[in-house]
């Protein structure tokens, strides 16, 4: 279950709520489940609640994976998480 | 839109598609189950199936919580609304699921039931506070992604002592369903299909982490790649599965590393375990009774548990005889194999739940993919005609 | 103290409310019509004061008539209200046959208790829209229903116009090879309304695109050496672009191939649709049109559209193809292909 979107925290509000921005559109959500979220963090929002954060470094690494030129390159540079799994 | 647009880039898609085509072994067939309905939707909406080599088959699994909700559960909600004047709040997808007596929540609404669509569990609690003279029940569905919000709302309802609010809990669990598909005798009797690997759910994994899947990789020797929802994620996930199959490996890999960690969201998990506990068994549409696959509300929150409050008793109701939702949810049949598909059963008049939600295999295929069935039929016809000549 | 002879206390538009007497046909009805409707819509035909308007008949061409009911909620939304919407909607329906809209009739069904301030605001908005469009409201009717039996106000408008002889613009006329054009960005009306309901805020506000398109249609026809090269005109209102294209394929017995990358959508509308779980292809528009024309004149038509204030964002989005199954197919930006189907039921936002 899934309509969950990455959105940027633009303002923290009282009672563990926040205003997030997606492509210029702003909405108020709950950050009760990601209570350490800060302004400019990207959180993943699902049915009005932030459920996790985006790690910008991992995002870059994933995009680099898509752009890789050969299979060999992939096995040489597993991401942090993948190393832990093996 | 950051973290969205980059993951939908067409050039990268072509590149990954080329890699998949280059790396699949011509003599091998690859059958991967994407468990989660969001992946089913992404595959259909972006036309990913058409970008894969013919020997890679995507099997749509039962990861759509609307699709696996049995008729009997909807009946409970409809009865509360029609017979006891309760205001039922639920997410949009749930409203069209066909139930008994040709009813659905939306049809019950037309008959006078007070059914409200909400975007968030929070909205349901707000409605209860705005209407203190009415009983308000939130029909809570969803996998582990959607369960923490319900837990929060129950915690708030108790803290604020909102006595006219309760939750009809139909939350289900991912790992149990996957295990059940892989190992249960009943399911094997009903029919299963060989699965070479899993595209693991994205947002469920944000909450539960990547660790719970190690079990499948080890016990059943099936690779699992946890994959994000954007189409590039899906393609990359498929590539990673192909590579594992080729190399004879069966481990858990995390393609969605930007949002999923091994342990997941511990705060959310803790909250859920404070409010909910496991049900011994729960009926899933198409899978029958699945042990330890669903949640119920803990006794400490009994006053907000609709099943206890209204003394509800669940009765199992079989699907329409010719509805193949069960087989489709297990990946044994395709939507086009169902006699009712596209004729009696359409998104306008769904007979089974796979046709209701955009993520259901049948609805996704009907809305986005059925032109391919026709192409196959036309080619077959042409072949027959040319042979006949 | 002297009381003026024939003094009639004027209606209190600031604080008053509609009550059952306003629909009874008696003095209160007459006063409401006089002080509100007739004053706002004022024109020579309305001043005739008959039950129906006596209108001149043009010497040539064919009569086009269209009717539209408006039940939108909320009544007021960013960029418009039910009043101007009801004028634009019917003017557009008439214009989609290539006709020049001439007159409008308006019927109001008002709920008992409806604030007169809101009614005045709606009527003034209609009057302004009619004036700007150059299409007078020549006759009308008002009824009042008991409280609870209406949603504030429902408005139904009928329009008549004249189509020049020899023009054959209708849903059955799309031909294989034709170009498919849209007049601008899609999804704004639906998003403006839904965002209000769901309390979304915008950096740059998304407003309804509600507008009268008849002058755009006229400039399109005038730009063509051979007006019969314009085969279909339709405005993608309820159900959005996707539904309208499917209607046309069915009526003309053709297929369509469109390019997602060519379909213009504002980035904020895209973002709002993501947040709301909607697909912009299915979201209502109230100030855009789809034109299907012979391929040779596509560029001419696009230039004419872009030269008009309501067509500046015009784009070619696809081509009509041969297809006995009448599918609307789309090449996705991503590289795959999918069908763009009819809207099923109401677009229920996904959570997944």
The gist of it:
The complex is a heterotrimer of chains A (86), B (389) and C (352). By secondary structure, chain B is an alpha/beta fold. Helix content of chain B is 41%, strand content 15%.
Structural account:
The complex is a heterotrimer of chains A (86), B (389) and C (352). Chain A has two domains: 54 residues, Roll (SH3 type barrels); 32 residues, no CATH class. Helix content of chain A is 28%, strand content 37%. Chain A contains three helices and five strands, in the order βββββααα. The longest helix of chain A has 12 residues. Chain B has a domain of 55 residues. Chain B has 389 residues and is an alpha/beta fold. Chain B has 15 helices and 13 strands. The mean pLDDT of chain B is 88. A five-stranded parallel beta sheet of chain B has the order 2-1-7-8-9, sandwiched between helices. By secondary structure, chain C is α+β, with helices and mostly antiparallel strands. Chain C has two domains: 144 residues, PurM-like, N-terminal domain (60s Ribosomal Protein L30, Chain: A), CATH 3.30.1330; 161 residues, PurM-like C-terminal domain (Phosphoribosyl-aminoimidazole Synthetase, Chain A, domain 2), CATH 3.90.650.10. The longest helix of chain C has 18 residues. Chain C starts with 26 loop residues before the first helix and ends in a 13-residue tail after the last strand. The chains are: A alpha+beta (86), B alpha/beta (389), C alpha+beta (352). The interface between A and B is large, with 43 and 63 residues. Strand 3 of chain A pairs antiparallel with strand 8 of chain C, so a sheet runs across the interface.
Indicate the topology.
The complex is a heterotrimer of chains A (86), B (389) and C (352).
Chain A: E1 4-13, E2 17-22, E3 25-30, E4 42-46, E5 49-53, H1 56-67, H2 71-76, H3 80-85
Antiparallel strand pairs in A: 1-2, 1-4, 2-3, 4-5
Chain B: H1 10-23, E1 30-36, H2 37-45, E2 56-63, H3 71-84, E3 87-90, H4 105-110, E4 115-117, H5 121-130, E5 136-142, H6 147-159, E6 165-171, H7 174-183, H8 185-190, E7 197-200, H9 203-208, H10 214-220, E8 224-226, H11 231-247, E9 252-254, H12 266-275, E10 276-278, E11 281-284, E12 288-291, E13 295-297, H13 306-309, H14 325-329, H15 361-388
Chain C: H1 27-41, H2 44-47, E1 62-70, E2 76-77, E3 80-81, H3 82-95, E4 100-111, H4 116-133, E5 137-145, E6 153-163, E7 179-182, H5 188-197, E8 201-202, H6 214-223, E9 230-234, H7 240-252, E10 255-259, H8 267-276, E11 290-293, H9 298-306, E12 315-321, E13 328-331, E14 337-339
Parallel strand pairs in C: 4-5, 10-13
Antiparallel strand pairs in C: 1-6, 2-3, 4-6, 7-11, 7-12, 9-11, 10-12, 13-14
